[in-house]
What we know:
499 residues, alpha+beta, di-copper center containing domain from catechol oxidase, Jelly Rolls, 2 domains, two-stranded parallel sheet, 14 helices, binds copper (II) ion
Amino acid sequence: MTIRRRTLLKLSALAGGAMILPDVMQRALAASNTTKVRHAVSTPEGKLMLAVYARAVGLMMKKPSTDPLSWIFQWYTHSTPEDKEVELQKVFGSTSSPHRQMAETMWFTCEPHRSGNSDAFLPWHRMYVLYLEQIVRDVSGDQAFTLPYWDYVGPSCTPAGQCTVLPEEFRKPNHPLWGSLYRPDRNPGVNDGKPVDASPYGSPLTLDCMKSPRYRESGSDAGFCANLDNDPHGVMHDNVGDDKGMGVIAWAANDPIFWLHHCNIDRIWASWNKAGGLNPQDTPFTSQSWTFSNGQGLPVVAKVSDVLDTTTLASPYIYDSYLSRPAGSVPFSKPLVRAASVHAQSRLSSGRSSAIALTEKPVKIALASQLRSTSKAGFGNALFSATQGETLYLTLSDISASAEVGNSYGVYLNLPANVTPTPQDPSFVGTISFFGVGMPTHGGHHTSTRDISFVVTDIVQKLTDAKRMNQEPTITFAPIGKNNVNAKPVVGSVSLQSS
Ligand SMILES: [Cu+2]
């Protein structure tokens, strides 16, 4: 103590009377609003945080469901397993209380999936994770806690081949500490340590969403937010959970891995911003707000404009590492997309609708184009000479379902008839996740649709070189895992465009 006081006096003298505190003391004084660091769960720091999380989850699971700090209350904030009114009645009966009022306001507010307000996907989940993190701090009594993230994609994903294995702490049902992180409702093999992206239940996780230069849909590009919502977000949900777990909206947030997954989704957003991606600034977007519970169980209203930058929040945070955009990314500097020139499009067949119904078997459709390919050059070369170095997009619009599908579909370009669809095939383009598509909205039967896009310039080049692009293209949709046959998954339209 003496030493510290002396140091302080000396520093004050040096600064000519101005108060300068040694770093240690400054940090102590500013503890409440110091920038905190979120760590990968695979690091020693991340493991320490995971132990705090596991203890807090166990405590939250013991709290009554009427308590905003309980596990169920937080899970239901995302979505209720049954109709919201039914669940409110089950938990609160017909009595009115401040907590019931909070539940009425907060439950089932996963805005993007509930209403189809897809731009809100990232800010709503940033808030959801942020307040859960505060609750864990208060429930555990550890104010230094930060939520670890599951680093399952990208070059920092380590150890190679193992980073898509569900961390072992989530797979120990009878362990006194880690048991709270276990859930049985996961796809076959996931709780045995099989990589979640492996066939037949899993699909590859990518950072292809970061190739998008805009947050929102723009021309042929469905935008960073919608593409991220699909892959790796939705694909990971489908990879991990079954229809009483991560695979469907209603149950997803009951699995403790949900939060580490969404922490990584938040990191991908922060990484895209760091690389130069701009968030929308219009008032209809930035003024949206939702209610959450703080660490004391009191309601707080969070506004989108407050959470667009993690470093300027009331409780700022950064990540221990960020991701770079993958090869083939569309430059941010590229001017806003003009009316895209359409080169191939799924054509109305004899019926009135061009919608493509997906089934439990692979479905193949042909794209029709006005582009005339000479037999010598082939379609691929004709396409390249017509588009002159522009980016080629495969855009899937109006993806819908009449109920939650519970799995994904692999998308293939010009897959030869005799070839079995696997993600290792050069025709593999990416994955459509139906996570969150086909969920009935609260109080109604409306289902939201989704648009997604893939940058396919490199794939078209590879297929052209391999002479797989000689004819007008075909698209194959192959199911991954087991789907809900009653869900009627549909892709409204498909187009291959340049912009
Ligand atoms: Cu999610």
